[in-house]
Amino acid sequence: MLTKRERHLLEEIRVWENKLYLQEKEINRSYEKWIDYTFDKLPERQQKIFYATLDSLLFHLHAIIQSTSVQKEAKERIVKSAQASYPYIQEIQDLRSLPIESLIYYAEQEIAKHRLYSFTQGGLTGSGGIFFMAADLPLIIAINLRIVQLLSVIYGYEVNSPYEMMISFKVFHISTLPKHLQGKEWRKLLEGIKVNKDTYFWHDEHEVITDKTWLGLPLKQVAKGLFILLAKRKLIQGIPLVGIGIGAGVNYSFTKQVTEFAHHFYQLRYLTEKDDMDEFD
Fold first, then answer.
1. Contacts of 200 (CB under 8 A, 6+ apart)
2. Considering Cα of 25, then 175, then 281, then 16, what sign does the dihedral take?
3. Spatial distance between the Cα atoms of 281 and 272, rounded to a whole number of angstroms
4. Which Pfam families match (predicted)?
5. What pLDDT, in 10s, does the model give residues 227-273?
6. Domains of the chain: which residue ranges?
7. What is the 3-state secondary structure (H, E, C) of 61-105?
């Protein structure tokens, strides 16, 4: 049974979820129509190859991050932090037995860190350095993939398994989509988990997750880079403060969007499973 606090939190998540569904009615932005127009000109085979390659690159980056020593140390740190207050915690799965207040505390700590990482990384990109500008997109993707994985761990789901790895990857993907597309994909993800309980799911061996709807992210980062280059000439005491502000602000906003979405997802999953309800009804 859920506590009063947990039921209140579940109600808050449902309110957020309803807002997500309402955003589906929003009209596509002009740049999304331009993406559709541009990519529809390409032969279907080339489109499939492009999206399959993009999917593979993102998924391998996702796998690499979860196997790095830094990520392993972060997971160990989370477990040890929980052990300080709850000695019976021995492994990641045990974290599901913790009170929601403790999990939120651990999650908010990691969220704050990664928003700061994004803010700093964006600021460095905004300084106009060639290296940071070239590395901007892979770095911002890596930072956000990492925090989604850590949120999964905090709520007791080990991302080393193919099932949980795929779920966290899909959570990241959906969180980066335009707002009006997130509701539909959120619904599909919850339904997929409901039907494929604890089993690896991929609807089709040739299925790709990324498509032209996802390309708004790299295009926004390219646009940000162009603004930074234009603002590079505007120096204040020799420092490109405008560019730094643009870079830091855009990256912080992006990570805020990702972490808010992912945190709501793992909270909902934790609460529905604890309440022993028919998951994600």
1. 162, 163, 166
2. negative
3. 9
4. EcsC
5. 777 766 666 656 678 888 888 999 999 999 999 999 999 999 999 88
6. 44-274
7. HHHHHHHCHHHHHHHHHHHHHHHHHCCCCCCHHHHHHCCHHHHHH
